[in-house]
Amino acid sequence: AGKVVKHLSLSLFGSRFLGSEEHAGFLYVHSTLQSLQGLPLPNQPYLFGLLVHRAEVAWAKAFPLRLMLRLGAEYRYPCPLYSVRFRKPLFAEIGHTIMRLLVDFRNYRYSLPMVPGLTVDLEAQRTCIKIPTTGYNELMKALNKSNEHVLAIGACFNESADSHLICVQGDGGQYQTQAISIHNQPRKDGLMVQITVETMAELRRSLREMKDYTVTCGRLDQSDSQELVCIQWVEEKCTVNKVISPIDGKSMESISSTKMFQKSEYKENGKIIRWTEVFFLQRGDHLKGGTTDSAEHNRLTERIARAFCLALCPHLKLLKEDGMAKLGLRVTFDSQEGFVAGSNGQPLPAQYLNALDSVLIPVIHSRGRKRGDEPIVMELIFYILENIT
Asked: With 80 as the cut, is the pLDDT of residue 189 above it?
């Protein structure tokens, strides 16, 4: 049906799935600290699907990180990359939990807001909440929607932590906190911080102004037992794209990109070609702010993608059989306009490049170069898939 999935998103299926009424679907996760040795893996980007029990769906929808870490406690830290069919559910009825106040478990009209990249470090007498500067807009949305007296935000998986707090529900429905770690070292439990109205106002003001803030907890006359809760803004390292270019194997790790969802279908001989992403290797300043130029450029990019798909449609079966299922098209707009296309780190064979020449060159030249335009280089990624409809 063309649904795009990402880390911690969910696919749910009908009443009976994989031999059981209790199998609800898959929770998708990135691999982090698990060993991938010996696994037959596709090229990046890819996700692992973890089988979700029907009783766990509420947590998978509202707070998937909680379910992911609970699976890690049951099978392997920080979460398994395999699924166990016919297992018992790790969570039952929602029961008595503060999460009932923060999440609408009945209709899911509201849930716990998440800030991408926000992490929490628990240390001895110090708790550090790290917020990436790139998450400012999402944090402001959460701040503006929150109750005046309560600020509740879901954190992300912290890859640098040596252990994680997890939520375990007992047979009686009660929740308790446990810790899982690489080194099997015992850890302290989590905490709730209660602050004055004045401190809450100062905290909110600091967040809006993107300033660090520290809350001192404990009795003022016992400085040795005081604990600090530090809110810090950090520059997030860009590790979003683990993709490498199909054209020459170049890493795309620090390059901004946009995921594409192609509306039109291009298929032939039981195969289908899809445009999935565009990377901006070099973009002119006018694309960063000018909406008119940017919209015009987007239309041109779509025309280039359409021309690429149409030109290769007659060759999809042969390309796929020859192991060229992932394709890259790098287009350059400067004094020497042109393109290069490839797969598996090599340029496409001449017969395919010739087919592309006749349709792509006119589209690329149609842009029209203006005086003072900065060079633009972008790379479009395509996949050839089996047409199962």
From this structure: no
Rounded mean pLDDT of the chain?
Answer: 85
Domain encompassing residue 343? 257-386
* Same-domain pairing of 74 and 142: no
Average of per-residue pLDDT across 199-226: 85
Tokens of 7: 């880390």
Three-class SS state of 61: helix
Q: Average pLDDT in the 1-17 region?
A: 84
The amino acid occupying position 293 is: D
276 neighbors 269 (Cβ within 8 angstroms): no
Do 76 and 160 fall into the same domain? no
- Contact call for residues 378 and 280 (beta carbons, < 8 A): yes
Q: Cα separations (Å) of 34 from 38, 48, 153, 168? A: 12, 12, 27, 22
**What count of residues does the chain have?**
389
Is residue 105 packed enough to be buried (19+ CB in 10 Å), middle (13-18) or exposed (0-12)? middle
Contact 159, 65 (CB under 8 A): no
